[in-house]
Design goal:
It is a single chain. This protein has 388 residues and is of the alpha+beta class. A hairpin with a 7-residue loop joins strand 3 and strand 4. The two termini are 28 Å apart.
Length: 388
């Protein structure tokens, strides 16, 4: 899409900041996004930023999608998390039959969610009327945004009965097809509604099962989006969301420090040299991590215009994202400590960002084992790099 569209979406994300901050307590209390908020975010296009226009999306670059997530997260990380999950869950639209895609896109502002992990099975079975289809069963955790969604997808191993090994793909469910558990009771990212869902021997027509290998034979195989490293693409908004929270923490400390007079002091917190140093260090850490992340995204995206990324680019993207997450968590911790008792109350944005950052850092896509895998590739030329 044009730069005008990118600029428009970034401006819209910034405009959402005050509303998301004001409704953060409500979002946390509900443990999901209020439906009116989700619907309004969808109407503004935040759930369809990534995939090409032919698939109902805006076709924005991964860097812009990450930047949008970063800006939204400054207001509320759960909202940013749900919209980025919605956007990335639509990647498999490219593997759907045209009729099924058209059904999903009947609502141009459709809200989607999905779990990429292949935690279910799809076994070929004729339907009641003899139609081609599959019996699907499975259990998918961390299904962020599912409570708001019209379509929820889950990774499956597909047994079509025509080969020794099951193929990999995604099953597309309507909410009525699944059991969505009320089990998202967490310290952070409370409003993401990342509940577990199950399918109990659900029959789905064949058009609802998208085979991953279909993309390789589709017109979309040459799209830069589908040449990006998949795990790197799925993880990068997490790093961007973390950076947005870290930046919001620095801004909040500066704002609080201008008026707060600590007990036993005659000067405001903002007049203390120790705080000056802490803020400068935090700001530098955020800027450095951000520059590394976006330069890595740009390098991978430039390569995707012509072909698949090599190991170095894939490794750089994953490590930069993990570094952004871990650095942002450290910044949130230091900024919470910098203002003392002000940050211990749930109403404090600092406390909420810290809880959200701690929860986000537990996600396996940005956890420290990523660094272990990346580091192994420097020493073992035969290392399994599929996780990068």
């Amino acid at each position: 899409m044009s730069g005008v569209t990118s600029d428009k979406m970034l401006a819209l994300a910034a405009e959402w900041g005050p509303t998301l901050r004001e409704r953060s307590a409500e979002i946390d209390s509900l443990r999901q996004l209020p439906q009116d908020l989700a619907d309004a975010l969808a109407a503004d296009g935040f759930y369809r930023t990534l995939v090409p226009p032919a698939l109902g999306g805006m076709g924005l670059s991964p860097a812009v999608v990450a930047n949008i997530s970063e800006v939204l997260a400054m207001g509320n990380a759960s909202a940013a998390w749900c919209t980025f999950i919605g956007s990335t869950s639509q990647i498999m639209f490219a593997a759907l039959e045209a009729t099924q895609l058209a059904e999903i896109l009947e609502n141009p502002d459709v809200i989607t969610a999905g779990v990429f992990a292949h935690s279910g099975t799809a076994t070929a079975a004729a339907g009641p009327d003899g139609a081609d289809g599959y019996r699907v069963q499975g259990r998918w955790a961390w299904a962020s945004g599912s409570h708001n969604s019209e379509w929820i997808s889950g990774g499956v191993q597909i047994d079509s009965g025509d080969g020794p090994q099951p193929a990999l793909g995604r099953a597309f469910f309507r909410p009525d097809d699944i059991e969505l558990h009320d089990d998202w009771y967490t310290s952070g990212l409370r409003g993401s509604g990342s509940s577990t869902f199950e399918a109990h021997d659900v029959w789905l027509p064949a058009t609802r099962i998208a085979h991953e290998r279909t993309i390789l034979k589709s017109p979309y195989a040459a799209e830069p989006l589908y040449r990006m490293p998949l795990f790197g693409l799925l993880a990068l908004p997490i790093g961007a969301i973390a950076l947005g929270m870290a930046r919001a923490c620095v801004d909040e400390v500066i704002d609080v420090a201008k008026s707060k007079v600590p007990q036993g002091s005659r000067r405001t917190l903002g007049q203390r040299p120790s705080l000056h140093s802490a803020v400068a260090v935090a700001d530098t850490e955020v800027r450095a991590a951000r520059n590394l992340l976006y330069s890595s995204i740009d390098a991978a995206w430039a390569r995707a215009q012509h072909g698949l990324s090599d190991l170095e680019l894939r490794r750089d993207l994953r490590t930069a994202t993990t570094h952004a997450m871990q650095t942002s968590l450290g910044v949130a911790q230091s900024m919470n400590a910098a203002v003392g008792g002000t940050a211990v109350f749930e109403a404090s944005p600092l406390q909420r960002h810290l809880r959200d950052a701690q929860t986000a850092s537990a996600h396996f896509m940005v956890a420290m084992p990523v660094m272990e895998l990346a580091g192994r590739t420097y020493f073992d030329p035969e290392a399994d790099t599929s996780g990068l």
